[in-house]
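Students often ask why we bother encoding 3D structure as a string. The short answer is that it lets us treat folding as translation between two languages. Here is a chain of 483 residues written in the first language.
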Amino acid sequence: MTARSSRTLALGFLAALALIAAGCGGGPAASSESGATFVRADALAYVSLDTDLGSSQWQQVNALSKKFPGRDLALSKIEGALAKQGLDFQRDVKPALGPEVDLAVAAGATPKDVSYAWLTQPADPAVFKSTVAKLGDKGSSGEPTAYREVGDGWYALSGSQKEIDQVLAGDGKTLADDSTFNDALGKLPDDALVKAYANGHEVGRLLEHVVQQSGADYAGAAAGLDKLDWLTAALTAEDDGVRVKGVVQGAGSETLLGSGDYISTALGEAPADALAFLSFQGGKGLASALGNAGAPLTMVLGMPLDELLGLFENETALYVRPGIGIPEITLVLDPSDTSAGLATLDKLAARIAVLTGGQVGGAAGERSITIDGVTIHWGSANGKIVVTNAANGVSSYDASGEKLSDSADFKEARDAAGMPDSNGGMAYIDLKDAIPMILGLAGLSGSQPPPVLTENLRPLRSFLAWNEGSGDTRTFNLFLEIK
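And here it is in the second language, the structure alphabet:
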């Protein structure tokens, strides 16, 4: 490990020490100032961590953490890790942190010149300096961690004074005065554990430099990231779990998150016992994301890329449900022309059989391919194309019985997360039932999970993610339900 990377880890550890707050309570007084006051306006990225340990967000974290049996053990291990560094939370960490700890990243002339700096307004500057000295790791150069006071009791620290200079605004415009930055953060909740911002144009420039140096195709690698104005996100703690909420602004948002909202029909056709469900609309975004990578893909598959992408032009859904031995995995496609879509799958299967030595079989209504003892079936059902590893998965699709959209577990997850019926795509995992199944499969393979792991996974109820919006602005949510 290089001297710089060692110091980087030490500085990151200093910021992460605030996470012990859930068990310690109390903290520095809140401040209306921000490290963005000192950072250059064209910063590549900026992250702000709430280290006011008495804030409402940390009180919520404290309440959520009590649902996990291993909470006290985890806190004692964190205290032990501090002790190994010669640190005590009350004596060294709490007074060394301000009400927030910020991380700013600035791009340079080349990808190797990207610089970072941590910023905070410590409650006790003397303790801050001594704590940094204890954490600072001297490498082969013998240089200690660099820091300096930048104004109003705020300190910046990094691997070198040069990096601090590159991140700070000096006499130029600051990030706090930048309208784009303020507009982006204005889309986020006022109270959050973490807020993050990325400048889309600066990210695009950096990505272009990286891709050019690698010799790869820029259009294919960018996947819309080069066309974003900004991306911002926040991590918040709520009564029933934790949420990441973000907003993407710019023409590239369509490539990343889709172009519009819809109501999933597959959600009302998938069985109620599905442990996981994914729905998205491909459209133009899928082709844009592939970029020039489509040419080699066409060569391998032996068919035009447009023909393959036609399978995904409308809603595409994937769900997993319990099965005998291994879970049942089913892919549901809704192309405009079902017959043409089935013909495409037939050609694709024939090509895969040639490449892998697999065997294609089945009748005209339901075809299959077997590779190394695993059989995949496909056919049409209810006007859609169904691809599944279940022997009767095609014929039983959308059979009578309770559907996922009506199941109590899904309704609970949807209500806790606040997901609207109309959205731009969603992903759902029933953690309550999926985790025991995964642990059971691990046990069958001879890897018995320890009881402490099982107990601390039990509060995890569900995971739900979706995006929504219109035009060049898309909002995304990821919600982990804890109960």
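Translate back mentally: Residues 1-11, 18-32 have pLDDT under 50 and may be disordered. Keep this in mind for the problem set.
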